[in-house]
Amino acid sequence: MLSQWLQHIEFTYPWVLGFLFLVPVLIFEYARRNKRAQASMLITTTHFIEDTKSIKTSLLHFPFVLRCFAFVCLIVAAAMPRLKYTEEQTTGEGIDLVLCFDISGSMTEQDFQPNRLEAAKAVAEQFVQRRPGDRIGIVIFSSLSFTLCPITTDHHAVLVQIQNIQSGYLQEEGTAIGSGLATSVDRLRTSKSKSKVVILLTDGVDVGGSVPPDLARQMAQKYSVKVYTIGIGSEREINEVVESPLGQITQKRKLEFNEGLLKDLAYNTGGQYFHATDNDALQKIYASINQLEKTKIKLTTYNRYTNEFLPWLLAGIGLLLIETLLRYTAFRKFP
User: Fold this and answer.
1) Which residue among 131, 149, 204, 300 is least enclosed by CB atoms within 10 Å?
2) Residue 93 gets which letter from DSSP?
3) Distance between first and last Cα of the chain
């Protein structure tokens, strides 16, 4: 909470804070005077009163400490601290966009770091942060499809939902690309935006579902939804540890990848197909889509300030009053 307050605090007259350097000077002068006031000759016969120290003598310097804190508070108050709140208002028309994630078991392959799905999530988060004027939604699919987040301008909610995506979230295993795309198109069907886009990310191995990919493509064409497809992974062999009657053994397994389907979905809806073979390539693909789907958005920034000097002023005055009261009562010096 304190760190958040410090991030938003600023001072109207920051040069006043330079007077804080007087505090060490006051402390030095106080220590010098206190030392001079002590007796210059020690009398050995007074050693027996060493154990007679009272609370008053132990707290002898307490009023001065209060005075120093009061001085600090008054200087901070004079610098006029204020909290700054920045608000941004967007004008212009963004696009309506759905991020469609394959969360099937094959998306946990580790040819990306740490795996395909986690790499896709990390890059998607960066993409969302670069699209301040868009309405964005999230659809996930395996053998079933599900709208994780409807299209919204609340990008914080979108980012939270992206972070929560996990393989196996829908329990049913499989990869129904057609169902995932159909659900994404349905989210955009009633949109009034001039530009409607689906970014579908999968390993491209379709095993069927309630909606065939051809029908989902026709839906996208009917509702003028542009589909960008990202094929993640490659057709290569990896070493995989499997259980056998003889124990764990390592065998070769070919990573399946069907880019023909993804090319068909993209090219027949006015989008583009991309192939990502590693984390860097995936980042470049999202950067390319970000450039292809540019929108004219004007951001207007408003700064709102709340003065915070009053608590410091009251604290300074209060400490001075307490210090004065103690100095003329409990810590009063008699001649």
Assistant:
1) 300
2) -
3) 49
Residues of the chain with CATH 3.40.50.410: 93-296
Angle at 294 between CA 176 and CA 290, to 5 degrees: 50
Looking at this protein, which amino acid is placed at residue 189?
R
Coil, helix or strand at residue 154: coil
Which residue carries 């106080």 as its tokens?
30
* DSSP states of 234-294: -S-EEEEEEEETTEEEEEEEEPP--HHHHHHHHHTTT--EEEE-SHHHHHHHHHHHHHHT-
What sign has the CA pseudo-torsion 227, 233, 236, 242? negative
From the list 226, 147, 155, 150, the residue with the least C-alpha distance to 194 is 226
Helix residue ranges per DSSP H, the chain: 2-8, 22-37, 55-58, 62-78, 116-129, 155-164, 177-188, 213-222, 259-267, 279-292, 309-327
What is the model's pTM?
A: 0.61
Residue 220 tokens, joined:
């996208």
Q: What is the DSSP letter of 331?
A: T
Place of tokens 């001065």: 64
The correct CATH number of 93-296 out of 1.25.40.10, 3.40.50.2300, 3.40.50.410, 2.60.120.620 is 3.40.50.410
Beta-strand pair 196-202/225-232? parallel
pLDDT tens profile 277-323: 888 999 999 999 888 877 666 656 667 778 888 988 999 899 989 88
Find all residues with CB under 8 Å of 13, minimum gap 6, and list them. 78, 79, 80
Give residue 173's pLDDT band: very low, low, confident or very high (50, 70, 90).
confident
CA distance linking residue 1 with residue 199, whole number of Å:
38
